[in-house]
Amino acid sequence: KQAEKAVHQKKEQSKTKCRKARRRHINLVAEFNRRQRKNIWLETHIWHAKRFHMVKKWGYCLGNSPTEKSYRACYRAMTKHCLLQDLSYYCCLELTGKENELLKQLARICSIDTGLTFEEACCLSGRFEGSLNLYRADHYPEDMLGPVTFLWKPRDGSENRQLWIWVHPALKQDILRELKAIFQCSEPEEIYIPEPVATSIQEEKRMDVVLTLGKKRKKEDKEGEKAVPVKKIIGDGTRDPFQSYSWISQTTGIVISDKTMEILRYRLIGPLSHSVLTETLKAASLQTV
pTM of whole model > 0.90? Predict the structure, then answer.
């Protein structure tokens, strides 16, 4: 009986025993696309997963605490050098439309008594980022929704402006619902279908076929660039993949778009942050036609 029990409990042998085969680029990318389907990964997830204890919050998989004693190193970087934090899990809501119409309706969900508003001159020009607390429309000082940060796109000569509002994922649904209410935005007819999910499933099936046929995966890569999978960030943790991601107002023409996980956000802390940005980012030359 013990021998029969051992036979039934024997695990199936892995299809890829060789570590060299597992570490090939095509297999690493396919594994990345497969594993981040349940809990959304940030683009820095693999770096954090090797050094941090990961937790599942707000639909994302985030680094919570380091696995080794790196507190002194982080403190040293914050005080003397530069420390980078990945805040891409913050949700970005984009408002597009006429400037006067945007300011008119946004004034209903904030108050000048609390400090800065969307109409502040330094923020309205697009030079600086602002922060404020949002409330339900015409309910100040009651029914506070939560703190947000915002940034206007600099003027390009037209009356239409773009405004990006970053909110915490726990507050996104309430703030998005309030914005759609004050701007009277309705969902468009087209529904978003997550193509990356289908693509990654097709890639897995193709890889299974290659394994069953006994071909080498390296030869499969040489069939063309289209055969190599691309690393994809599938949707975000705060929205159902089959829900709409853009809403438009039929009366004012204001468009609200959900840009979560499309616009990445990083925070640099430390006295050398500006030097790091200067060395990292290079200004592009303007080309006039």
Answer: no
